[in-house]
Amino acid sequence: MPIVEKVKRFLQSPNGRRLTDQGRRLAADPRNRQRARDMLTRMRRR
After folding, report:
1. 20 and 11 in contact (C-beta within 8 Å)?
2. Distance in angstroms (rounded) separating the CA atoms of residues 35 and 22
3. Which residues of the chain carry a pLDDT beneath 50?
4. Can you tell me the distance from the alpha carbon of 22 to that of 45, in angstroms, rounded to the nearest whole number?
5. Interatomic CA distance for residues 8 and 41, integer angstroms
6. Most exposed among 10, 15, 35, 36, judged by the fewest C-beta atoms under 10 Å?
7. What Å distances lie between residue 8 and 2, 25, 31, 38, CA to CA?
């Protein structure tokens, strides 16, 4: 089974939906967005 199909199946499962919703909630917080930007900036410098 291709990896894309596995990911698709997981995202449609109850656990996948729960994690997706949690990610959306975390991404909505401006502080978390800034932390993510800062981390990407630090990783790009290396």
Report:
1. yes
2. 17
3. none
4. 29
5. 30
6. 15
7. 10, 21, 29, 30
Identify residue 42 by its one-letter amino acid code: R
Helix (H, G, I), strand (E, B) or coil at 20: helix
pLDDT confidence of residue 1:
79
How far is residue 19's CA from residue 6's CA, in Å, rounded to a whole number? 15
- Is the overall model pTM greater than 0.85, yes or no? no
d(CA 16, CA 22) in angstroms, rounded, equals 10
Task: Return the residue matching tokens 């410098």.
Answer: 45
Count CB atoms within 10 A of the CB of residue 45: 6
Residue type, 11: L
Beta strands in the chain (DSSP E): none
